[in-house]
From TrEMBL, chains A, B, C, D:
UniProt keyword list: Aminotransferase, Pyridoxal phosphate, Transferase
Native source species: Candidatus Anaerostipes excrementavium
Cofactor: pyridoxal 5'-phosphate
Signal peptide: none
Domain of life from the UniProt record: Bacteria
InterPro entries for the chain: ArAA_b-elim_lyase/Thr_aldolase (IPR001597), PyrdxlP-dep_Trfase (IPR015424), PyrdxlP-dep_Trfase_major (IPR015421), PyrdxlP-dep_Trfase_small (IPR015422)
Protein name: Aminotransferase class V-fold PLP-dependent enzyme
């Protein structure tokens, strides 16, 4: 069945599988100490314009968030996040499992507004009682956010300035980073992000890899003995080269950008198609996820033919749902989607 | 200096000290296995009308919250609390230290409204994605709340009904329980609370004891090997009889009630005095804490003569402050406070 | 370079890669809720003779140990392990990270002897002071052990009996389980293990898969909401079908057994070759890992030509090293190894 | 009944109670920010000859160990302790609860021998695989040990040298420190200890106080925001002055030394009495705890008349038991004990 359920419904880009099969019988040293990981790291450093960055590969997003955040925070600190942030809501308490609080601030379409961040920090430091509170020790943002929205360069610079002023690191969850970078509305490059963030990760799982995320510490600010910490938190892959090979391919000949651009293209066709047919969007997302409001009866009909995901209830008769394009989505799949929408519409009208 | 800074500025009621001095040279078995603890537990069971309750004594409020909440929650669960709850804001992340999330809901003057609780639970269980979220596993309320407000019997019954419906325990933080019970506005008895809550604690530190809180598990629902858990979390007092003797005295001849009533009496004189002098209250508290709005200049003058605590900024010219009465507050102290207020007023007018 | 450094130096069995490539473009639901995982589970249930077993796939061994052990223990309990156990020594404190103690007992060539286990448990329960101690709540064994040794059926039955008597689960770390089952000295079948253990895992990472371990709860004794616990501990793979497909292939047409048998065959050729050449073994291992004592000078010469791993220092002139065969080791590789040994010997003699 | 069951069976030295009662009605600022704590700290600094030491008061020993050890260790580190150490065995996993491993080494009568420590550290750092192991990040010793034994100055200097060489802190658990300092066999002063240890605590609970331990960081090496960490771990006492007043009295006019000396005197009379009567000692303890081997029948008779504690089984007919003297033990109590021993002996002979 045609599916837009998420951006991780398919395996990996063909080039990754090819390379993986080629290397399959070559003996490799364990735990990411192989040449392939080294090559991938070097390519990422170049792409980031950050020759001295420290890079680590991890298996998935929640694991990455837990290990990076626990690694950067001191014991008496928590991480500031938007109330809709993935670490706040959808990681089953993985941050709290490491002993740290997620300090939520109200988000604006998934983003932390600089003035909200500043207000939070000012209030904390002005409160004479803050020795009995969790210290804000880091800022977590996702880009694109869980709502598909993007920070503009000015916003990211402002957040970075505030973090620098309060001497706390800025961390970007880039699970869908490629789709953010290739959005037509983005005025941020990977180099900008590497310059403005203290640490961020480049998502592979949702952007062309079988699995894997590349963590970039941009200022030689890796927590000490990070490999041991990864091991302690159960995230060290024996065959680490499996992660290296995927990012090596993704960062060869701009493949990461190219497949992300393709996802944006199909997402825009999808969005255009919805708008032309009079659908309302929940949020105006410039990235690969599109949030559309459907009548419940129409939603039920559509569900029989196409995969998509429930997002939130709007009212008794309407529901917001998500259609996700990905690196693997084709233009003909979008045409098929729109054709089915038209058919349902005609049946209804007829 | 005359001080209303908190309800824990003084030591213990004289009768407690007397009894403690009498017992000082009697050898006692360790860790609360003594006859004095047993006596105190028996008296509390009677006062609660709960002959089978399991009772444990701990040293302080944050310790008690962390041990009880961690003890009652399963690993994948968090505790629901008002956003102003002590466990949410003022315990330095003690709950998260145990690996659990505090799931905040918007409070109403410090209270969780039954409909808000119901809405939260319904939303959680309706969300198809909740396997990736922290399960709501317990409800934490404070009574009186951090704002000095009280649940009425109907509200507590509604909360208890909802908890029963969802099969999660209701936990009451009774750091200032005596002041709640003796408030003129209270329609809840200790027996009601024991009947409606699954676990609660009777605060000693702020109500006549040197230190100590009595945890009451009302349905033989004590977590297994609770003593070992207390030890593991660093809360087991070698000379546990020190806690027993204090609660033994507090629950002899209704001393706990009597001294709480005295605090309510002086708190009301204070409140009356403020209102007669035209002061605005931040919250209309029927218990021992009074939250008054002062002009900043007046606040500065007052600060030189009397101890009280900063609560929150109202605007550039006004601040809300807290005056706490306690078991140790006398009527002459209140008269002295009001006299000083009048003097400052006269100076200003003059 | 010819390498016997570990059993995870190569990728996956060809059949796994083929199947993975075939499925690469098929959309799959996330987090292991796909048909391929279901198929794999069904095959494992059959192989275990345990139709009602609950099965979960995880990414690696340390992650699996941490999630299973934390999942089975109650907060006041620790896990008993041999002092040489992987969880005791080589997992960077992953168990302690979850808040639990590893209670070590002296191992015998990596194994826990039933009488040692019984002694430990008797001592604990006889100690009047045990409320201040960590309760033994589970037994962890590895099979094959870290020294390549095996439990015989009698030993496993005795351990299982003791665990049942004390009502604590028996957990087997089967990172190299296939090599244990196919050892000529093994009198244990997979069905025996499923019958005797409360939970165990079938290792994929070291036995033919790219990565992945299959956890088997044999008595419908899965900890509640285990998926949420996995998520909380950062172990939930978005594309869970990647694990399913690997175990589906491994448990089709006895592939898991067949490739394990192949590793045992080459390991025995290796062992035979060492013994014929007069080498001493550190331990007489009947599985895929061989522990050989080398003169240091010879070791240095060999290191230039062949990969193997340091095990432990014997004396100033000798070192024990490990040669690991795996599913991917060929007979010609073993012949090549023995040829090189002979060459080095001749040079030395010459 | 006459009891030698432990050194915490009685309350506090009279002078402490007197002072506490005097201060009972004086309002004090909360959480240890009072003048009395300040005075006590100043006196302890003087006694330690360590004018710049940072000092904190905590409630009990397990709490202190957990907070100090968690505070000093980095996340990837564990604490080295003797296998008989209190943190290893009798704190219900309180260290593991904070996420850290206790790395045990074989003790010699409760002590870590310098050569054993050096061997452990050398082995760890020589192991090429140590990235997968828990890093040794601190050394924990108890003085007197759990067996009543003492480090001599040379041993402590050697341990301190090794710690300095490996740049890890040396921590002394001084739950019974006074009895160590006043032992006739001690060649260590409090100043020596303050000079050689990075952090240690002076026990109050077992040495004259109702409860309380004074932690001394000797090199301005307090973990950052230590008050917040104490709060987070549930150890912050609201009426912190209760701890201050006790140590203020204990360190006035050498009271701490004086009462400790008295305990040593009675312990020695006890020991002498046992030896004169032909009893065997389990360990030759020069401090307040005496470990005596009794025939089981005699032990049962004695149990009816005197409190003492079970230590360990020797053989089917004999048991080692502990008699503890304390600051509160009188010479007449010892005479009474010896008289009862004689009576039991006579009955048996008769």
């Amino acid at each position: 069945m045609l599916s837009f359920e998420s951006d991780y419904i398919k395996g990996a880009h063909e080039k990754i599988l090819e390379r993986l099969c080629e290397m399959n019988q070559d003996p490799q040293p364990g735990y990411g100490s192989d040449a392939c990981c080294e090559r991938a790291k070097e390519k990422i450093r170049k792409a980031c314009g950050c020759p001295d960055a420290d890079i680590f590969f991890l298996t998935g997003g929640t694991q990455t968030n837990a290990i990076v955040i626990d690694g950067m925070l001191r014991p008496f600190e928590g991480v500031i996040a938007a109330d809709s942030g993935h670490v706040s809501v959808h990681e089953a308490g993985a941050i709290e499992f490491t002993g740290h609080k997620v300090l939520t601030v109200p988000g604006a379409d998934g983003k932390i507004q600089p003035k909200v961040l500043r207000g939070y920090l000012e209030n904390f430091w002005n409160d004479g009682n803050h020795d009995h509170m969790v210290f804000p020790g880091m800022v977590y943002i996702s880009h694109p956010t869980e709502y598909g929205t993007l920070y503009c360069r000015k916003e990211l610079e402002d957040l970075a300035d505030i973090c620098q002023e309060y001497q706390i690191p800025l961390y970007m969850d880039g699970a869908r980073l490629g789709y953010g970078l290739m959005s037509k509305e983005s005025d941020l490059t990977l180099q900008d992000i590497a310059r403005l963030c203290d640490v961020f990760y480049i998502g592979g799982t949702k952007v062309g890899a079988l699995f894997g995320e590349a963590v970039v510490f941009t200022r030689h600010n890796t927590p000490k003995h990070f490999i041991t910490r990864i091991k302690r938190q159960g995230g060290l892959l024996a065959k680490g080269w499996l992660l290296g090979v995927q990012f090596d391919v993704l960062f060869t000949d701009d493949l990461y950008y190219e497949i992300s651009r393709q996802a944006i293209r199909t997402a825009e066709q999808m969005k255009q198609g919805f708008l032309e047919r009079g659908y309302q969007l929940l949020i105006d997302s410039p990235t690969n996820q599109q949030f559309v409001i459907l009548e419940n009866t129409e939603m039920e009909r559509l569900k029989e033919k196409i995969g998509f995901s429930f997002w939130e209830k709007i009212d008794d008769a309407h529901t917001a749902v998500r259609f996700a394009a990905s690196w693997a989505t084709t233009e003909s799949e979008v045409r098929e989607l729109l054709k089915i929408l038209d058919e349902i519409h005609e049946e209804k009208e007829g």
